[in-house]
Amino acid sequence: MDNLIYRIEDSPKSLKEYLLYGAQQCLSILTATILISTICGTNVAAGFVGAGVATLTFLVLTGFKAPLFFSNSGSTCAAVITALIIGHDYTGVILGGITICVMNTIAALITKKVGSS
Asked: CA-CA distance, 66 to 43, in Å (whole number)?
């Protein structure tokens, strides 16, 4: 089982490993994105677009060195639900999304400059 643990410099070595890794990523990301969007009462398609844009931005800024895909996070549920209740529209959610993107961009730039441990 230890051979299925990938570090940042590792990649799957066979077609079977690629398929298993891809299936695992697909199931976990799909589940999280649909679940969190449903809990927050937001559009699932918007969750997928946000995750895709965040992923592409991260990959470009890090030079495609980290095999990472962003998904929706349960840690943002309270903020999203509160923004929707207070604002009665998506302005708060959009501003929160922009803030999260900026913070992830800063983290990516720091990782690119400093490297990972």
From this structure: 28
Tell whether pTM > 0.70.
Answer: no
Find out whether 55 and 69 touch, Cβ atoms under 8 Å: yes
d(CA 81, CA 94): 12
> What is the structure's pLDDT at 1?
47
Query: CA-CA distance, 106 to 88, in Å (whole number)?
Result: 30
- C-alpha to C-alpha distances, 20 to 7, 75, 89, 112, nearest whole angstrom: 16, 27, 40, 29
pLDDT of residue 4: 57
Alpha-carbon gap, residue 100 to 96, rounded angstroms = 6
